[in-house]
Design a protein that fits this description.
Elements lengths: L2 H15 L1 H8 L3 E6 L2 E6 L2 H21 L6 E6 L15 H9 L36 H11 L9 E5 L5 H15 L5 E5 H13 L3 H9 L3 E5 L8 H16 L3 E6 L11 H7 L3 E5 L4 H18 L9 H8 L4 H18 L5 H7 L1 H6 L6 H11 L4 H5 L5 H17 L4 H7 L5 H17 L1 H15 L1
Parallel strand pairs: 2-3, 4-7, 4-8, 5-6, 6-7
Antiparallel strand pairs: 1-2
Helix pairs in contact: 1-2, 1-3, 5-6, 7-8, 11-12, 11-13, 16-18, 18-20, 19-20, 20-21
The structure holds adenosine-5'-diphosphate (ADP) and magnesium ion.
Length: 463
């Protein structure tokens, strides 16, 4: 295999994994050699190597094979500068070791120091890594947050976390801040919401204190700004944010940003800012799945049991809640709090019946039904096709594929049966719907664009 072949394979991968993933994970790979069926790549850090291997290894292998290369394994190693020792096992980066060594003084309380005038917001005690439950929908975001929380040099700056409301963005940011305060008390860590950032800026403008404002922000080591979608459209704040951002990145200071959507999807955010925000690592928190919700509930119940030792909860109640409340974690937590308060008040075991009584309103609100028509409309809009083609006979791929996606979403998001769905799609047979559902399931696993589109559509429909 030559560098040329790798060039072609990279193009295929770009299509398969989507632009964001490509820029973050595939572009940094440097083809080294193909020997004895092993394709070797150099990676900038072990973290990237592990991640690529775990998440994209199979795809890279598949595409290499497809291009004619005889490969049965791919390997990622950190390139050693100078005389590389062939046998040198990949090691954790030095910065990680330093952070671990500092763990020895972790118990030292964070005392007031010449940085206490820092403009940050207080951190929520409950939002730590210990209390964050990891599941499939949030594992990448969690891994990235953990990595940043180790302090030291990281290969991606900024870290951009995005996802719908109540999925744990703020929780992860606070967890990073807590961890850094503990392990790296030498670092000046500032967490604040974009709204607070703006407020500070406006205040500085009014009081002629813009110089101090700039100096203050540019003296931090780690800056976290939550909910940046908020400053989109606020021109002068955007401008100042951009400058602060650039100044910090230039000094190799870590920045962590969150938003409710991807940088390019934030309306009225200047292009150069969006592209700068994308230049690091962009990870999204996916909507929770049943397993994650159940995991979170179990974790919370264990905590509650410490404060209400006598309180019993019947089997099946948590499963019921995880199944019925699928909007966001905040609502789920609220439901549980209410349930425990009620249970301890009446001094009874929490049964399924009590749950249904006590949470009737919450359950009803979570019950909002998505209709097949809404799905057809949203999917048509998304792919710029006519609604009539959704139910019409055209079989061209550009129409048939979105139609299959709409069928798949109808199966996922509504309680309609396959024959009913078929009927609503222009009287198609239930086997056609079944085929569509299977096909999209297959595609979703190998084609990131489709997976992303589905996710986006689902979010819009469930919003
Ligand atoms: P966001 O900032 O994304 O809107 P938050 O971080 O404020 O969401 O999370 C909302 C609530 O849900 C918080 O109380 C948080 O602790 C909780 N939460 C979200 N995800 C998890 C998780 N994976 N494990 C435990 N708690 C979670
Ligand atoms: Mg938040």
């Amino acid at each position: 295999m030559t560098n040329d072949t790798w060039g072609h394979v990279r193009q295929d991968l770009l299509k398969a994994v989507g632009k964001n993933n490509y820029v973050t994970w595939i572009e940094p790979l440097e083809f080294d050699a193909l020997e004895g069926g092993v394709a070797r790549f150099h990676v900038p850090t072990n973290f990237i190597g592990n991640w690529v291997s775990r998440n994209f290894g199979d795809q890279i292998l598949t595409h290499l094979t497809r291009s004619g290369a005889v490969v049965d394994r791919v390997e990622f190693k950190v390139a050693r500068s100078g005389a590389a020792h062939a046998a040198a096992a990949p090691r954790q980066s030095v910065s990680v070791a330093t952070a671990a060594a500092n763990g020895a003084v972790a118990a030292k309380p964070a005392t007031a120091r010449p940085g206490s005038e820092l403009p940050g917001a207080p951190l929520d005690k409950r939002f730590t890594f210990d209390s964050f439950v990891v599941g499939k929908p949030n594992q990448l975001a969690h891994a990235a947050a953990r990595r940043v929380a180790e302090g030291g040099q990281v290969s991606f700056n900024p870290l951009f976390l995005y996802g719908g409301v109540g999925l744990g963005k703020t929780h992860l940011m606070h967890a990073i801040a807590w961890q850094l305060q503990l392990d790296r008390p030498d670092l000046r860590v500032v967490y604040l919401s974009a709204e607070q950032f703006m407020y500070r800026f406006v205040q500085a403008l009014r009081e002629n204190g813009t110089m101090q404002f700039k100096e203050l922000f540019r003296s931090v080591d780690v800056l976290m700004v939550d909910d940046v979608q908020f400053i989109a459209g606020k021109d002068s704040t955007q401008e100042e944010f951009f400058h602060t951002f650039n100044a910090l990145v230039d000094q190799n200071k870590q920045i962590i940003i969150s938003a409710d959507r991807a940088p390019v999807e934030i309306k009225k955010l200047e292009d150069r800012i969006a592209s700068r925000l994308q230049s690091g690592l962009v990870v999204d928190l996916h909507p929770t799945d049943y397993e994650l919700r159940l995991g979170i509930l179990q974790h919370k119940v264990d905590q509650y049991k410490a404060s209400y030792p006598g309180l019993g909860i019947q089997n099946g109640v948590l499963e019921f809640l995880a199944h019925r409340i699928s909007t966001n974690v905040r609502v789920l937590e609220g439901a549980l709090t209410k349930l425990f308060a009620f249970g301890s008040l009446v001094g009874r075991e929490i049964t399924l019946e009590l749950t249904q009584d006590c949470l009737a309103d919450v359950l009803r609100a979570s019950d909002r039904k998505v209709t097949i028509e809404e799905i057809q409309r949203k999917v048509s809009e998304h792919y710029n096709m006519r609604m009539s083609d959704m139910i019409g006979p055209k079989r061209h791929r550009t129409i048939a594929r979105p139609r299959q996606m709409a069928m798949y979403l109808s199966k996922q998001l509504t309680s309609r049966s396959l024959p009913e769905i078929g009927r609503r799609f222009g009287g198609r047979d239930h086997t056609t719907v079944m085929h569509a559902v299977r096909r999209i399931e297959e595609l979703k696993a190998v084609d990131n664009q489709i997976a992303e589109d589905l996710e986006l559509l689902r979010r819009m429909l469930e919003a």
